[in-house]
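User: Could you go from structure to sequence for me? I need the amino acid at each position, not a summary. Structure tokens:
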């Protein structure tokens, strides 16, 4: 059989058949949810940290609402312990899109006394909950759109797409509204708000496939680079001013990348040579540990469980 004959007999691609790929279905669902929020909620905001999931959310919002402006501002709760590459990217993307970016800082909550830390270098990850609730109150937001996914952590898998929070920002997993046939009920009482997760049904692999398909720009630390780290508790911890090595730990330079990005004090890279989305896709397809399980030190202790944090107002 000639090469030309073999090519002619090859089954047509998904695109050639006019069929939707799984990414098309996920994209359509997310766009529907974003438009539902815009249509049903009076004053929503989209949480944008500069991370990969929120970068995907921005692309979905572009597809949902462009050429018009977004019907909501971008909101970032800044711990003050962020990787500088991510903050630079955050500001750059907001500027490129011409969208309003609201930044509220955990540092300001500390000054007000609404956040109290045991010591200056304590992780501020959980403290974001307080600052977020203060921002929700300040701007009277009735919905906060976030990039959480159900595959990240078992507590997230319990949560609905529309996650209702009481006047204290608390989530009650035993009292959630049904979402049969993708019908969402956004009604809330005064003082309440709803967290909305349009990419709940996406996986880490889906995210990277979409990034590759849409050519979405990301902060450089998502790709392989050389970084000083120390090995601790089975993880590679970055060496920074906020996270110096402990006594007896040896600093080494390793080729690493970040699977997820958060507070420097609790976010760890993984050893990797993956320098582009295609190489990351190959790594992700063979990964046996979730991105948070492999890289978030604050998820390793039961007293800091995700479910407890979410009950108290976490994302």
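Assistant: Here is the amino acid at each position, in order:
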């Amino acid at each position: 059989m000639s090469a030309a004959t073999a090519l002619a007999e090859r089954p047509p691609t998904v695109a050639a058949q006019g069929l939707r790929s799984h990414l098309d279905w996920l994209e359509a669902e997310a766009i529907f949810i974003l438009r539902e929020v815009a249509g049903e909620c009076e004053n929503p905001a989209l949480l944008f940290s500069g991370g990969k999931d929120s970068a995907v959310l921005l692309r979905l919002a572009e597809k949902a609402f462009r050429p018009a402006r977004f019907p909501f501002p971008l909101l970032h709760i800044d711990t003050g312990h962020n990787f500088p590459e991510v903050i630079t990217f955050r500001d750059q993307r907001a500027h490129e899109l011409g969208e309003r970016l609201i930044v509220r800082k955990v540092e300001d909550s500390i000054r007000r006394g609404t956040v109290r830390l045991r010591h200056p270098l304590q992780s501020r990850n959980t403290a974001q909950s307080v600052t977020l609730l203060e921002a929700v109150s300040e701007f009277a937001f009735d919905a906060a759109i976030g990039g959480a996914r159900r595959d990240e952590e078992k507590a997230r898998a319990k949560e609905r797409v529309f996650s209702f929070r009481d006047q204290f920002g608390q989530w009650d997993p035993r009292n959630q509204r049904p979402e049969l046939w993708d019908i969402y009920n956004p009604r809330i009482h005064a003082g309440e708000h709803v967290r909305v997760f349009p990419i709940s049904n996406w996986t880490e692999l889906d995210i990277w496939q979409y990034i590759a398909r849409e050519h979405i720009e990301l902060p450089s630390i998502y790709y392989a680079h050389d970084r000083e780290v120390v090995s601790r508790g089975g993880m590679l911890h970055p060496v920074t001013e906020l996270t110096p090595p402990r006594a007896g730990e040896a600093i080494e330079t390793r080729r690493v990348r970040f699977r997820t990005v958060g507070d420097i004090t609790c976010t760890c890279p993984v050893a990797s040579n993956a320098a582009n989305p295609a190489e990351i896709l190959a790594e992700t397809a063979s990964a046996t540990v979730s991105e948070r399980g492999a890289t978030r030190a604050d998820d390793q202790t039961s007293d800091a469980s995700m479910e407890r944090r979410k009950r108290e107002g976490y994302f």
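One structural detail worth keeping in mind: The longest helix spans residues 22-40.
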